[in-house]
Specification:
- There is one protein chain.
- The chain has nine helices and ten strands.
- The protein has 266 residues and is α/β, with parallel strands linked by helices.
- It has a single domain, classed as Rossmann fold (3-Layer(aba) Sandwich), CATH 3.40.50.
- Strand 2 and strand 3 form a beta hairpin.
- The protein is globular and about 70 Å long.
- The mean pLDDT is 89.
């Protein structure tokens, strides 16, 4: 009996060691090659190189709008890089917003290797750029995170006083996601990443908008509801249509109208 118990413990320990090493490849899906730049889409932009507190150089784009009074700091999802976010940049631009979009470390032309603490440091560097270099007032910045980017946005949002926080198609925590994807393993494996959006959003005390589709095929709708439930007032929840990656495009007119109404009400 003792031998069996020890064997089980050793097996779980070895499984955790193996999964600890594999978890980054299960979470982050970066691509290095940029497909295009905003000038190819008819928008002027500035190439931006940021230095993080831990010495990593990041690459991003600042896309100004001639009449932009507010600025979106956009944190994208876990796959691809900034060049795959044309539609979102165009939507923000059509809404009259300046846009700063960065590639996390290990994505696109950004140095380094992605991890949770690193992504939070990347967000800090992006915030400093807007406040210190572009000299944009805190209250004129809208922090926007989609999918994995929602976790990055929520963490930054809890540490600064922005004009608003928008979380689209994101999860309440990495643990909640793992329990849905790997029901049995999630009770045996110690997660390497927390990405606790629900916990961080409780420390946000300015307007929060949560958007999520009931038909999301990657992050379940109820996790978006959990994020909204954890947020403080004033908060707004808007159901989207369609799947995880392209749902906001399937009903783009309604999506843009919802964003415009939220921003106009700030």
């Amino acid at each position: 009996m003792m031998y069996a118990i020890v064997s089980i413990i050793m097996g779980i320990a070895l499984l955790n060691a193996a999964m600890f090493l594999r978890q980054p490849d299960m979470v982050f899906f970066p691509q290095r090659q940029l497909q295009a730049a905003p000038d190819a889409w008819g928008m002027s932009y500035q190439d931006v190189n940021l230095q993080t507190a831990d010495g990593v150089t990041l690459h991003g784009w600042y896309v100004p709008h001639e009449q932009g009074r507010r600025t979106v700091l956009f944190f994208h999802g876990n796959a691809g890089n900034i060049s795959h976010r044309r539609e979102s940049i165009e939507i923000f631009h059509d809404l009259g917003l300046n846009v700063l979009i960065i590639d996390y470390r290990g994505y696109g032309r950004s140095e380094g290797t992605p991890d949770e603490a690193g992504l939070y440091a990347d967000a800090d560097a992006a915030w400093r750029y807007l406040v210190e270099v572009q000299q944009i007032k805190d209250e004129d910045i809208i922090i926007f995170g989609r999918s994995l980017g929602g976790a990055v946005a929520a963490d930054l949002g809890a540490r600064v006083q922005a004009g608003a926080l928008v979380l689209e198609s994101t999860f309440s925590s990495a643990r909640a996601m793992s329990r849905l994807m790997f029901p049995l393993l999630s009770y045996l494996i110690v997660p390497r990443f927390k990405f606790n959006v629900a916990e961080r959003v409780r420390d946000v005390h300015y307007p929060v908008l949560v958007l999520h589709s009931p038909d999301d095929d990657i992050i379940p709708f109820r996790l978006g509801e959990e994020v909204h439930a954890a947020a403080n007032e004033p908060k707004t929840f808007i159901p989207l249509e369609g799947d995880h990656n392209s749902g906001f495009l399937q009903a783009q007119a309604e999506y843009e109208q919802a964003l415009a109404q939220f921003i106009d009400g700030l």
